[in-house]
Every structure is written in C-alpha cells, then in structure tokens.
Design brief:
By secondary structure, the protein is mainly alpha-helical. It contains 15 helices and two strands. Strands 1-2 form a two-stranded antiparallel sheet.
C-alpha cells in the first residue's frame, strides 16, 4: 500500500477548535495511515497553544490498560436516577459476625424476657454487703419507691388475665408487704427528721436496706413474668419469705422506736431569761419611759408554740376517741370464741382509754392543778408538757388516721361483717404499737 503524503480524507479540521477528530478506518489497510496521522498531529502540535500541548504531551496508553478500561465501561451499570443498593461491605452497614453467638438480633433486651434479666438473691446480698449509707432520709426514699412498685403490682393484680389466674396469690403476698411498708414509713420518717441532732442514738439497722432491695428485685421479676404461672409462684414464694422475715424483725423495730420516741419527745429548751436591767449611775440615769414604751405587767397569753401544741393535742384526743369507738365496734363483730384475738383487742382498747384520760387531764389542767398533779406523781408534769414535740404529736395523729382510712377496715363479703378479717390482718398490731408510744409519752414511768 502506497504511503500517503497529504492529509487523508478521513481527517477533518475544525475551524473553531485546535483539536483534530479522527474517524474510524474503513479497512485494515488504513492502520498505517492512522499511525502517520498521529505523527503528523504531534508535528503540528509544536506551534499550538499550551492547552493543545498539554493534551498531546500525555503518554500513550498501553494496550492492557485500554483493554481494562473497555472492560470497565462494559460492566459499569448505566446511569439512572434510582437509588442503588448498598453493598454488603458498606462502611455503615452491619458488622460481620464472627460466630454463632452473634446471630441473634441486635437491640435492647425484651423487658418481658426473663433470660435477659436475672433476679437472684445473690444480687441482694451484694447490696447488703456494699451499702454503707445509713441516712434515714435515703431509706425513706427507698421505702417510697417500694410503695410505688407495690401499688403498680396491685393494679396489675386486679386484671385476672394479666396474671394467668394467679391474682389471689399475688394479693395474699403483696397486701402484707404494703402494710409493712406503711408501718415502716413513719418510723423511718421520724428518724430522718432527727438525724442531724441524734444520729448516734437512732437504732436503724443497716440490714433494712437489704430487705427493701430484695423485695424490690422480686417485685420487678414478678411484673416481668406475669404470664408464666410457674414463675409467678416462684416470685410469690420469695416475696412471702421476705414478708416472714419482716414479721420477725418489725416488733424489734417497734420497741426500739418506742424507746427512741420516749427519749426524744422534748424538743427545745426553755427560753433564756432576759438580762437584768443595768444599774443606774450618774452618767447613765434611769430612763423615763413614756406611755408608748410601757408593757403590760402580765403576759397576754401562752406563747405561739403552746397554742400549736394544744391544738395538735386536741386533734390527737379526737382521733383516740374515734379509735376506741372503731375498735370496740370491730371487736364486737368477732364471734364469742375468738380466743386470743378478742383478748388482744380488749387490751388495746383499754390502753387507748388510758391515753384518752391522760390527754383530758393534760388539756384541762390549770396552774394549781399542775402543782397538785406533780405532787401526786404520774402523768406529765407542766415542764414535760411544755416540752412536747408538736411534730411528733402530729405524726402520732396521722398514724392513727392511716390505720382507719385504709381499705382493710371495710367489711368484706362472706366474712360476717368483716370483724375477723379486719383484726387478723395486722392492723391490730399497729394500733398496739401506737398505744405503747402514746402511753410512754403521756404517762411516763417514774423511777
């Protein structure tokens, strides 16, 4: 094939651009002409613009690289506006799993899957061992939280479907625990009020925190397993064990609390006497008082604290009278052969009658009566009466109100008016404990 000396017809020069466009050859014989045209284009590029020099100065592409580019162009997906699928190795994709243990779905544990939560007694023992805070204010917060959990469990207990027919079992366990928490709350509240001034004298057992933590853990487990009858029975048995433990421990706390109350009923000391007037001298004569500076020679009445104390004692007297009436009515509903329960109810009523007599005597005494009362002995002296704690009297009144306002005192169907069911559920024990505190406060023993 003869060499070509001119520009082939396959070349076209564009007047508005410095680039050349090469057309595809029509036969195999034109490959040689294409090579010559490339050399020609390199010769012409010598007197072109810098832009053209940068284009022609690039190294030639090898055959292997050109083949790879063609292969990439063939396999590349066409341009589309649809979103592409994220590959498996995307940097924000899921992490690769190493073994069969990682095949479970990720996410928070199911609150109703007992496999994700372990409610064991070992955790309670650790709480007892590691807890060193004996501040009654902290214990009071835990008691309030425990009372809230018991209330939630009681609401669930009213739904028979939620407990799979075990609602009566849950009620039999949670009701005594609720009463124990209600009885512990005023005791711990009183300790918390005097923690700053009598921390060393407060007989608060650190094991109480372990008991509260154990009950809380078992209640949460019971709420999580309400659909499983076997698990419900296990948690009820554990809660019943905690209830029996507090039945043995609570009488000791009552005795300690009664002794503490009797020792710390007096609050503030009598106010100090006013300073003696200065002796008049020549440089400091006696000041002449004007009518505006005169004061009455006798006090206008008792101090404000005494008014508050007497008002709270009158409220306590009314509540004691109500307690005697309610207790007598409840005891009358018991059968004649009630045995120890009837005798205990009679003893408690007798104690409240003595408290009522002490209150009536203290509230009706005048100055001459106090002197005679001090000489005869028994009951409160005037100094002891003046030092009674107003807040403590208010707490005792609230304790009596709480006993009669709870639902357990209402007559229940099928119990013959409700007398036996009422007095057999622990309320009588609470009344007896309050009567002991009132007796020790209003009629202290003399040495």
């Amino acid at each position: 094939m003869a060499a070509r000396n001119g520009i082939s017809d396959d070349w076209e020069h564009l007047s508005d651009d410095s680039y050349s466009v090469i057309s595809a050859p029509t036969s195999d014989g034109e490959d040689e002409a294409v090579d010559e045209s490339v050399h020609f284009d390199a010769d012409v590029a010598a007197d072109s613009s810098p832009r053209r020099e940068s284009r022609t100065a690039s190294p030639p592409v090898s055959t292997a690289r050109r083949s790879a580019e063609v292969q990439t162009a063939v396999t590349a997906p066409p341009a589309t506006a649809l979103p592409s699928i994220v590959p498996d190795q995307h940097p924000f994709g899921p992490e690769p799993r190493d073994g069969p243990a990682d095949t479970a779905l990720d996410g928070p544990p199911d609150p109703f899957n007992i496999a994700d939560y372990e409610y064991e007694s070992d955790a309670v023992d650790e709480l007892v061992d590691t807890h060193t805070n004996t501040d009654p204010a902290f214990y009071l917060k835990v008691l309030n939280s425990l009372a809230g959990i018991l209330a939630e469990t009681a609401q669930s207990e009213r739904d028979p479907l939620a407990l799979g027919g075990r609602s009566h079992r849950v009620a039999d366990v949670c009701s005594p625990l609720s009463r124990q928490v209600q009885e512990l709350t005023p005791i711990v509240s009183r300790y918390a009020r005097l923690w700053s001034v009598a921390a060393r004298d407060i007989p608060l057992d650190p094991n109480l925190h372990g008991w509260m933590s154990g009950v809380r853990v078992k209640l949460l487990g019971l709420q999580a397993e309400m659909q499983d009858p076997s698990r419900v029975e296990e948690y009820c048995a554990a809660l019943d064990a905690f209830r029996k433990q507090m039945d043995d421990f609570l009488p000791i706390m009552r005795v300690d609390f009664n002794e503490f109350q009797a020792a710390h009923m007096s609050f503030a000391a009598p106010p100090p006497r006013p300073a003696s007037p200065p002796v008049p001298t020549a440089t400091a004569p006696i000041p002449i008082r004007t009518p505006a500076h005169r004061r009455p020679s006798h006090p206008s009445g008792p101090p404000p604290d005494m008014w508050r104390l007497r008002r709270e004692l009158y409220r306590l007297k009314d509540e004691v009278q109500r307690t005697i009436e309610q207790l007598t009515e409840a005891a009358s509903r018991l059968p004649p052969g009630g045995g120890p329960l009837v005798a205990l109810a009679a003893d408690v009523a007798r104690s409240y009658r003595g408290v009522l007599s002490s209150l009536a005597l203290a509230l009706s005494n005048h100055a001459s009566d106090w002197i005679e009362h001090d000489l005869c002995g028994g009951g409160l002296t005037h100094a002891e009466f003046a030092r009674l704690d107003v807040e403590a009297v208010r707490d005792l009144t609230a304790g009596l109100e709480a006993v009669w306002e709870q639902e357990g005192w209402e007559p229940r169907p099928g119990e013959g008016g409700g007398g036996r069911g009422v007095l057999a559920e622990g309320q009588l024990d609470r009344l007896e404990a309050l009567a002991e505190v009132l007796t020790a406060t209003l009629n202290p023993e003399r040495d």
